[in-house]
Give the backbone structure.
Amino acid sequence: MPFALIIIGLLMVITGARGTYAEFGKTIAGEFQGQNNFVYWFGAIIIVGSIGYVQELRTISRLLLALVIIVLILSHKGFFQQFQSALKTGPVQPNALPGQNSVSPNASQATINSAITSNSQGVGGSTPATAGQAKFNSWMNYIFGLGTNSAGATQ
């Protein structure tokens, strides 16, 4: 259970720092809605995992759980082709949220610098390159009492 909470916390911090939390939420919600949703797989994993609480059935439960996970991965037709095409295309620039100022990837350095609303330095003294990174640094500085404020004075 602690590992699940750590992973969820890391996902929240990473999506918050990148500013992709809305897209992440839509993706997760889409996995539990529609025709081929994840609810059936989730139910199968819970049922097979609960069988493992019986001491005599623990080995069978683990083998069935491994089988369910393998089938989950391989049942999506074209998994390996889609995986290879995703590796070839590389990362995709996320769309800006409504009402959020966005900076074009081809913008000049002056435009990028003006988009950074806070000059909060990171823990190691690094200057943020994006507004999202500056926001993340500000929150970490606030939480841990580190870094500088936007005027450059130590808090």
Q: What stands out?
A: The chain is about 60% helix and 0% strand. Helices lie at 2-18, 21-31, 39-51, 58-75, 79-89, 109-115, 131-144. Residues 41 and 71 are 10 Å apart (CA to CA).
